[in-house]
Design brief:
alpha+beta; Arc Repressor Mutant, subunit A; four-stranded mixed sheet; three-stranded antiparallel sheet; 44% helix
Length: 196
């Protein structure tokens, strides 16, 4: 039975294509979490999957050099999609995404509208912090990043250079009406600093 199940799971994973994440609940329809756990573990031992973290497996992209692992950001996004959650990069992660910091973060922090949790990936950690619904009220992808980055820097420490880079990132957004709406709901001090 477990060999048949492993074969079924392997076929399903291969059909989905590379660079996809899997958890036991992705195979809930097979109605046997214990066997699914063992099957995923077996596929990891065989080198078909890579165990990213406890209960999270990757069907990796490969090239002639070996396995191409997704970035922490790609992993966080994939986990959020599975949780049907929204996430916003926060802290240093937001600064990195906007080009305001070149410091590589060992621990990525995301605000989420789902359950708070921490996921260990090797020697790195992804932290999902439950956040207020107002942080998810923005229409554009860039504005919540801007707000998180500016909060991380702190009102007193934002330089002209920071503002220039932030405005460049905002300018890349095509939907100027959405930017205007997002700007209008941003915290007062951020609106004052940006004065769009």
């Amino acid at each position: 039975m477990s060999n048949i199940l492993t074969k079924q799971i392997r076929e399903r994973i291969e059909q989905q294509g590379e660079n996809a994440l899997y958890m036991v609940r992705d195979f809930a329809d097979l109605d046997n979490d214990g066997l699914v756990t063992r099957a995923l573990s077996r596929l990891a031992k065989e080198g078909v999957l890579v165990r990213i973290s406890q209960g999270i497996y990757l069907y990796p992209k490969r090239n002639h050099y070996g396995i191409l692992k997704p970035s922490i950001d790609e992993i966080a996004t994939a986990i959020a999609q599975k949780d049907k959650a929204r996430i916003i990069p926060s802290g240093l992660t937001a600064l990195n995404k906007l080009g305001l910091s070149t410091q590589v973060t060992m621990n990525a922090v995301y605000l989420t509208d789902a359950t708070a949790r921490e996921i260990k990936i090797g020697n790195r950690t992804i932290t999902f912090k439950r956040s207020a619904p107002r942080n998810f009220a923005y229409e554009t992808e860039v504005f919540p990043l801007v707000v998180c980055a500016m909060k991380e820097i702190g009102e007193a420490h934002i330089t002209k250079e920071h503002l220039m880079l932030i405005k460049e990132a905002i300018d890349k957004c095509k939907d100027k009406d959405a930017i205007r709406r997002d700007y209008n709901i941003a915290p007062g001090w951020i609106r004052k600093k940006l004065s769009l």
